[in-house]
Specification:
Structural class: alpha+beta
Largest sheet: 9 strands, mixed
Keywords: Membrane, Transmembrane, Transmembrane helix
Transmembrane segments: 349-366, 386-405
Strand content: 5-15%
Number of strands: 9
Number of helices: 8
Helix content: 55-70%
InterPro entries: DUF3422
Order of helices and strands: HEHEEEHEEEEHHHEHH
Number of domains: 2
Strand order of the largest sheet: 2-3-4-1-5-8-7-6-9
Pfam family, one: DUF3422
Protein name: DUF3422 domain-containing protein
Distance between the termini: 75 Å
Shape: rod-shaped
């Protein structure tokens, strides 16, 4: 078997929900904790529950003082779910068990999502959603009509979102999965919304970059004769700023897209049906959640579009600069060609003068030789001297010309 066969197969059983019978009350918290902070929180939780935690665990369900406690590690956050019976606390919306109060207080500033789910049976609930203090509630029949879920999506005095589930025909397994879906919707919805403040802050910054890019584009289109270097430097700086924006926001926007898909999937899994004139939970969430997600996606695409436009303009400027360089090189080559042609003409003139000088020198030497012979008493006829000197001189000049040509060719 492959070394990771067992681990990959067991992913099918990873992160099981808490299976329970109603009535009950569940508290769910999500913390923006990572690394050593999660380890510290788990060590405190292990001290409370007296159950050890191994480093490679990603989730665990333990019992403590009559409650079920489940924790889970996630990529960006950590979740904690506590389940206890309604009978153990007379309040409609009870607080978490006392043994967890200090644990939650120590990491209160890291709680990104807090929800409380009260599960009642159809034969013992109050009969009216208003009796549970929900103001202008939304509600849906879920699980094919086997349960009803209510919420007003308003935070209580403990900053928790309250959910009421009236169970008609869900067994413990379906009830646990339904509670898990509701908590997933709340947790991933809040995590997806983390990108919204960044998107709003990014909007004004991108407006400035768009104005700057528009000015550079206009300058490039209108000033073809001006030097390209200042424009290229400004555009390079703008491209660096846009790339910085992309690097800073890409991970957050990608996470938002992934979390939003999970929220949509969990809402579809509820299989909602309308209750009277009450708005459905999923419709209420999506009506306000989807525009925020689309806005974040629009900001992400806006950054990519600006970066692409800046890259195209940068390419045009570099092409323009390259054309200018090629034009300058062409002029330089033309100048070099003209200079080489002039040098060739001068060289030919020098070669001709050299042959004339050498010929004159040869004739002078021959004349001097004839005069020397005449002084020694050797009288040579002019016709004889001419018939000897002329071919000899022509041969010498031909040899010199051939040598010059051979050297030049080499």
């Amino acid at each position: 078997m492959h070394a990771q066969h067992t681990a990959l197969h067991n992913e099918l059983h990873a992160r099981p929900p808490i299976y329970f019978e109603g009535p009950a009350c569940l508290h769910h918290y999500a913390f923006t904790l990572e690394g050593d902070d999660v380890t510290t929180l788990l060590n405190r939780l292990a001290e409370l529950t007296e159950v050890a935690v191994t480093p490679d665990q990603v989730q665990q369900i333990v019992s403590c003082q009559g409650c079920l406690v489940k924790w889970e590690r996630h990529t960006e956050f950590f979740t904690l779910t506590i389940k206890h019976d309604n009978n153990s606390n007379p309040r409609i919306w009870p607080t978490p068990p006392t043994f967890l109060a200090r644990l939650l207080a120590d990491v209160a500033d890291k709680i990104i999502s807090a929800s409380v789910l009260r599960v009642e049976t159809a034969n013992r609930w109050a009969g009216s959603v208003e009796a549970y203090g929900l103001d202008q509630p939304t509600g849906s029949q879920v699980g094919g009509g086997d349960a009803t879920v209510w919420s007003d999506f308003n935070l209580d005095d403990q900053q928790r979102n309250r959910l009421l589930m009236v169970n008609d025909n869900l067994d413990s397994y379906r009830l646990g999965r339904m509670a898990r879906r509701l908590f997933d919707i709340e947790t991933y919805r809040i995590m997806a919304m983390l990108a919204l403040p960044e998107a709003k802050a990014l909007s004004s910054e991108l407006q400035h970059y768009e104005t700057e890019l528009s000015a550079l584009s206009h300058q490039h289109a209108e000033q073809h004769t001006s030097p390209a270097e200042p424009l290229l430097n400004a555009l390079t700086l703008l491209s660096a700023k846009l790339e910085r924006c992309g690097v800073q926001t890409r991970q957050r926007f990608s996470a938002t897209d992934a979390y939003a898909n999970i929220v949509l999937a969990r809402i579809n899994e509820l299989r909602e049906e309308r209750i009277g004139n009450y708005p459905r939970l999923g419709m209420f969430i999506l009506r306000r959640f989807e525009p925020a997600v689309r806005y974040c996606d629009a900001m992400n695409r806006r950054v990519e579009t600006l970066a692409t436009s800046a890259t195209r303009l940068n390419d045009l400027l570099r092409t323009r600069t390259q054309v200018e360089i090629e034009r300058q090189n062409y002029k330089i080559l033309q100048s070099l060609d003209a200079r080489a042609s002039s040098q060739l003409k001068i060289q030919k003139a020098v070669e001709g003068l050299s042959i004339i000088v050498i010929s004159y020198y040869i004739f002078s030497l021959m004349k001097l030789g004839l005069e020397s012979l005449r002084a020694l008493g050797v009288d040579i006829e002019p016709n004889v001297a001419a018939s000897v000197i002329a071919p000899l001189s022509a041969l010498i000049i031909a040899i010199l010309t051939w040598r010059i040509w051979k050297v030049k060719k080499h």
